[in-house]
Amino acid sequence: MLETTLRQISLVMSRLGGGMLLAAALLVAVEVSLRMSRLVIFSVGTELSSYALAVGAAWSFAHVVFERAHVRVDVVSQRLPPLPRAFFDVLAMASLAVVGFLLTLAAWTTFATTLALDTHSNTTLATPLAVPQGLWVAGIGWFTFIAAYRTATAAAALLRRDLAEVTRIAAPPSAEDEASEAALDARSRMEAES
C-alpha cells in the first residue's frame, strides 16, 4: 500500500515535470515566432524554460528510481553469484540515496540563502527565485526520500535473503525484463488498435 502510494506520487510529479517542459517548449516556440514577426521584442521563454528544466528533471528523479531506469554500469555484478550481486544492488541504491542527500543539502542551502536575501532574477520578470528553487528542492528532496526508502526495503529483503525482492527493488532491468516489457507494450498497442 505504501509503495503504491509513493509510486503514484512519483509518477504524478514526473508527469507534472514533463508538462512543465512541454509548456516551456511551446512558450519558446511562440515567443520565437512572435519575435521573428517583430510583434514581441522581450524574452521570458528562456528564463521560464530554465526553471522548467531544473524543476521538471528534479521532479522526475523519484519515478526513475521506481522504474529502475537510473544508469548503472553493471559489467562486474552480472557475473557474480546471486547473493553478492544482491549486496551490490543494495549498495548501489544506498549510493544513490547518499548522492541525493548531498544534493538536497546543497539545494537547501541555495534555497535558504535565496529566501533570506529575498533574491529576484535580474530579468524582465524579476521572478522571486525562492519559487523555482523551492520547487527544485522539493523534487530533489522527494527523490532522496524515495531512494532512501527503496534502500531500506531492499536491505530488509537482503537480510531476509529474499533475493528476488532485492532484484525487483534495486537491480537494473535485465535484457529479458526489457524484452518482456517491450512485448507487453506491443501487445497492448495491438489490442488497442483492434
UniProtKB/TrEMBL annotation:
* Skewed-composition ranges (Basic and acidic residues): 184-194
Where is this chain primarily localised? membrane
The protein's UniProt keywords, in alphabetical order, are: Cell inner membrane, Cell membrane, Membrane, Transmembrane, Transmembrane helix, Transport
Domain of life of the native organism: Bacteria
- UniProt-listed InterPro entries: DctQ
* Tripartite ATP-independent periplasmic transporters DctQ component domain ranges (all copies): 26-154
Keyword Transmembrane tagged:
yes
Q: Which residues cross the membrane?
A: 12-36, 48-66, 87-115, 135-159
The membrane-topology field of this record reads:
Multi-pass membrane protein
Chain residue ranges for the region called Disordered = 173-194
One Pfam family here: DctQ
Localization of this protein: Cell inner membrane; Cell membrane
According to its UniProt entry, what is the function of this protein? Part of the tripartite ATP-independent periplasmic (TRAP) transport system.
Q: How does it assemble?
A: The complex comprises the extracytoplasmic solute receptor protein and the two transmembrane proteins.
Which family, according to the similarity comment? Belongs to the TRAP transporter small permease family.
Q: What is this protein called?
A: TRAP transporter small permease protein
